[in-house]
Amino acid sequence: MLRVLSMVSGGGTNLQAIIDSVKNGMITNTELVGVISNNKNAYALTRAKENGIDAKCISPKDYESREVFNQELLKAVDAYEPDLIVLAGYLVVIPPEMIKKYKNRIINIHPSLIPSFCGTGYYGLKVHEAALERGVKVVGATVHFVDEGTDTGPIILQKAVEVHNGDTPEVLQRRVMEQAEWKILPRAIDLIANGKVEVEGHRTIVTE
């Protein structure tokens, strides 16, 4: 049974997709053991508690330095003994020591087809604003392993979504969530839980 810890900063729509997929059997061989947020007001914490999942807030604001926060965050993560850490809209930089310790065991969902519209500064609505400004016809989402860079780890799954005339960033964001993010994130977890993802160099080999 794959022990999954999710880390979230906001509303937790991707977290809800994971919870629902575990319940309906789309994700198999998996237990969601905890949720950590940096934001005590994140609705994701409520979602977790309503579904009987242990949840806690660990905020950089509560510690005298980023170094101390990083240490406490890693302690909290370790306490869950996770096999996989899922960043589902987590807007805090992951400590390098955590990336090293959990190499190829941290995944992230990003709302674009990496390597487009990714890296430092590209998050949330900013991604969709940039895509519309550039006039692309296709956007999407990517699930990837987390490495020391920003959105640079090995790609696991991607799904394309069409841009429509008249799209606003908010409308496009919602379509990408519904048509891509909420589908490929649960799928990636299920593949990992069943030993169907291997990392070779900077690529993954996925056995569907």
Automatic annotation (TrEMBL):
InterPro entries named among the record's database cross-references: Formyl_transf_N, Formyl_transf_N_sf, GART
Ranges of residues in domain Formyl transferase N-terminal: 3-189
Pfam families with a match to the protein in the record: Formyl_trans_N
Chain residues that bind N(1)-(5-phospho-beta-D-ribosyl)glycinamide: 12-14
Binding site for (6R)-10-formyltetrahydrofolate: 66, 108
Protein's GO biological process: 'de novo' IMP biosynthetic process
Functional pathway: Purine metabolism; IMP biosynthesis via de novo pathway; N(2)-formyl-N(1)-(5-phospho-D-ribosyl)glycinamide from N(1)-(5-phospho-D-ribosyl)glycinamide (10-formyl THF route): step 1/1
Catalytic site positions: 110
Marked site (Raises pKa of active site His) residue numbers: 151
Substrates-to-products reaction catalysed: N(1)-(5-phospho-beta-D-ribosyl)glycinamide + (6R)-10-formyltetrahydrofolate = N(2)-formyl-N(1)-(5-phospho-beta-D-ribosyl)glycinamide + (6S)-5,6,7,8-tetrahydrofolate + H(+)
One term under GO cellular component: cytosol
GO-annotated molecular function: phosphoribosylglycinamide formyltransferase activity
EC assignment: 2.1.2.2
NCBIfam families recorded: PurN
Family stated for the protein in its record: Belongs to the GART family.
Function of the protein: Catalyzes the transfer of a formyl group from 10-formyltetrahydrofolate to 5-phospho-ribosyl-glycinamide (GAR), producing 5-phospho-ribosyl-N-formylglycinamide (FGAR) and tetrahydrofolate.
Protein name (database record): Phosphoribosylglycinamide formyltransferase
